[in-house]
Specification:
Largest sheet: 5 strands, parallel
Radius of gyration: 16 Å
Strand order of the largest sheet: 2-7-1-8-9
Order of helices and strands: EHEEEHEEEHEHHEH
Oligomer: single chain
Distance between the termini: 15 Å
Shape: globular
Structural class: alpha/beta
Number of strands: 9
Helix content: 25-40%
Length: 180
């Protein structure tokens, strides 16, 4: 890792494990953290904002960006594209960047950039995970999201830090250790 630049932290884990909540908690506690907004072609949920949680784009816009070589990294899962535009990881000298990404994508990004730290959140309560997914996904894709979570977990051994909690405070505390 390049010691001259602050780390870029990428958090992965199955859907519903608490990645977004942990990032929001960390950003409240640390004003130097800047969230890298990924893009997705999935539908925006009722509690999300375009440009804040994700850049919500149509598949046609993804194809255009892909053809114009405007993407830094991307992946396809559950019938949608997820990823980051080329300018997403531009870092100011003192800024700490944080985001979440699909496991395979996080690992590819960490192989492209020297100052990336990866953390994987492993669910410790699958009943809670199922409940959270039911609360956020009204389109009956819970089973598919749980299945995809198993695929995400298959990459967990490749991450630098493994977090075995699902409570926001515990996750944030473990990630804070990375920053220190």
């Amino acid at each position: 890792m390049d010691r001259k630049k602050p780390p870029i932290i990428i958090i992965s884990g199955p859907s519903g494990v608490g990645k977004d909540s942990a990032i929001k908690s960390l950003m409240k506690a640390n004003s130097s953290l800047k969230y890298i907004v990924p893009f997705t072609t999935r539908e925006m949920r009722s509690d999300e904002q375009d440009g804040t949680d994700y850049h919500f784009i149509r598949k046609e816009a993804f194809y255009r960006s892909y053809n114009n070589n405007e993407l830094f990294e991307w992946d396809y899962v559950l019938d949608n594209y997820y990823g980051f535009f080329k300018d997403a990881f531009v870092q100011e000298p003192e800024s700490l960047l944080i985001t979440h990404a699909l496991a395979r994508m996080a690992l590819r990004i960490s192989s492209k950039l020297e100052n990336v730290r990866t953390a994987f959140i492993m669910p410790d309560d699958y009943n809670l995970l199922h409940t959270r997914l039911n609360e956020t996904d009204r389109n009956s894709k819970v089973v598919e999201r749980l299945r995809h979570g198993v695929e995400e977990e298959s990459h967990s051994h490749l991450f630098e830090i493994m977090i075995n909690f699902m409570e926001t405070e515990e996750i944030a505390s473990e990630i804070q250790k990375i920053l220190i």
